[in-house]
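Notes taken during the Thursday session

The instructor put the following on the board and asked us to keep it in front of us for the whole hour. The protein is Alpha-ketoglutarate decarboxylase. We were told not to look anything up and to reason only from what is written here. First, the residues (171 in total):
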Amino acid sequence: MGLKKILFTLFITLNIIYSFAQNSTNNSDFWNNVRFGGGIGLGFTNNGFNGSISPSVIYQFNDQLAVGTSLNFNYAKFSDDKFLAYGGSVLSLFNPIPKLQLSTEFEQLRINRTLYTQTVTIEDNYWLPAFFVGIGYSTPNVTFGLRYDLLYNHKKSIYGNALMPFVRVYF
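Then, after some discussion, the predicted structure tokens were revealed:
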């Protein structure tokens, strides 16, 4: 069910972007507004680490608003426990002033985790949604900031905590 949601979301996002391309009088104008890049994320706790990479594509409507889609890959290790996650997301970026970027991102990940206890090893696979709101310092191509997962579940999340730094780069 979760994979269908991801594919549907990616399809809708790409369809919206394609619609704008069809409505443009000059398709080269459309491609001038498409930016490729993505983000990396790191999270640290007392006993663990989380790292992520997210290649993405956005459509820059104007100097203030962009929307897009992203593929996500995450790895985390807390004590002996290991998490591997992959999936997709849709995101929106808003710059109310040139140096400030506000963002929202809905992410759906497939989690494969292995938990070790004193008596048993637990392997678990499930879908996990996340809804991030973020704020960052923005330059034309790079944004540094913090994002917060409003759906954070400490028992299931791959992320060490709900608040994590990010770096986004778009060209």
